[in-house]
Amino acid sequence: MKDLCDLKVHINGQHTFLLHQRILCSFSGRLKKMVKQERKRSQPKGSGLKITEFPGGPEGFELISRFCYSNGRIPMSPANVSLLHCGAIFLEMTEEFSTCNLLRQTETFLDGLFYWTWGDILTALKICETCLPIADSSGLLLKLIASLLAKISANSEVPLTVATQLPSSSSSCSSPDTSGFRCSSSTKTPETIKPLLLRIETIKPCFAKEWWFDDLTILGPNIIEKFMRNLEAYGTDNKNLILTRFLLHYLKAAAKKPSFDKLGYGGLADTAIYGVVLMGRSAFSCRGLLWVLRLVSGLGLSKECRCKLERLIGLMLDQATLDDLLVSGYDGVVYDVNLVLRLVRVFVSEREGGLSLQRMKKVGRLVDKYLGEISPDPSLKVSRFLGVAESLPDSARDCFDGVYRALDIYLESHPKLTSEECMRLCQCLNYEKLTLEACKDLAKNRRIPPGVAVQALAAQQSKLRIKSYIADGLDPAATPRLARCTAGAEAERISPELLDEKEKLKLNLQRMQNRVMELEKVCREMKGQMSKMD
């Protein structure tokens, strides 16, 4: 009975096995060497063998032990052959030590790999994650992936190797769930394949999910990386639309897992973005690209890939909606304002390339809506608000009422701003492009510095004077002397409505000037009192 437990084996620091030394050493060359080395050492007797990084951990070693105790026999299946094969390699269980060696038996079982079912291959690949280094170095992983690809090709309408980028730039899908994809074929597609591709494109929706996408989401990122490398589509080599779609689907599914750990997904995220950038606007809408950006932002995406993706989005910013831009921020900030600033800068930088005024004004309206949305955020800094408000040229807005409304909300939400900060914020307004209603509201708004209100009313009065000149057929650039000489005649010809508006503006302006004078008087009195105290 004592002989049955003469070998103690500690596996990966997780479990200790008490075994029969003669039985295990008769099948394993490595265990035999380790036992001999252990006898030569001056360690306490019975301390046992310590094995680290055993493939499959205690579960894998238990399978090996059962094989040895069953006189070299064990039922094999796709669920255990990966562990048995890697364990046999690790423990050197070759024919040199036993005619019924485990390594040859697993290799014989794996010879029938191409007759396995789809589920069997996935099961074996999933098990390989626990013994990946040996599975990879021994070629087992490559065999399983090759078999997986054979199954995909046999049950798909088009092989993965002929799916390439679109040559045209027609309209693109806009659903975030479909990522704005469309099917495509290369201009260099062999003639024998072109009819097949044409039939697929006419039958299958461009954004349809391939039948194998969901099944592969159970595999870890290391296995998927090997899958992509096997297809020569990893990193910058990714020029495949279907594989790009798969990676985005895989990353989306991975991010939803409760035990998700973003480590290990950076390479796959970069690979997906290389494919996305290559397809560009011919395969993606702006909304689809923003969805992609949200997806990969927390997956260790490289700075280079992020810049490429943001540039692609920025060039299409006029297609975005307010909801598209409301990306969650970091470090306590509600929205990622810096991202929007970078996108707007990219868009504006294209003015030299012939950017139309219509597109610019469309982005101007979008930015004004965005300003109104982010203004209540108490953590939004003055510099960030001004950055967004001043990110567009003056020509992008016909009216600055939207900017004023956003500014008013910001001032209300940030009551502790200094007078200097308030003055600086108001500099983002173009007073001449404010409507009369907005200017009236500004003049009565106690959150607006008095000096700003005076400037706004003066600009509005000047605008009305110019309108009256135009209405009378006069040159708006006429000298003040000419204006004074013709003042009486103008008053008779100006419409009653316009005259009424002018009178109101004059009255408001006079009130504001009186307010400024009163404030200056109070200030002088306070200075005098302070000098007396000194």
UniProtKB/TrEMBL annotation:
It comes from the Eukaryota. Residues 210-463 form the NPH3 domain. Residues 166-188 are annotated as: Disordered. Keywords: Coiled coil, Ubl conjugation pathway. It holds the Pfam family BTB. InterPro entries: BTB/POZ_dom, NPH3/RPT2-like, NPH3_dom, SKP1/BTB/POZ_sf. The keyword Amino-acid biosynthesis does not apply. Residues 5-71 form the BTB domain. SMART domains: BTB. Residues 495-529 form a coiled coil. Pathway: Protein modification; protein ubiquitination. Residues 176-188 have a biased composition (Polar residues). GO terms for biological process: protein ubiquitination. This is BTB/POZ domain-containing protein At3g19850 isoform X2. The gene is LOC103717133.
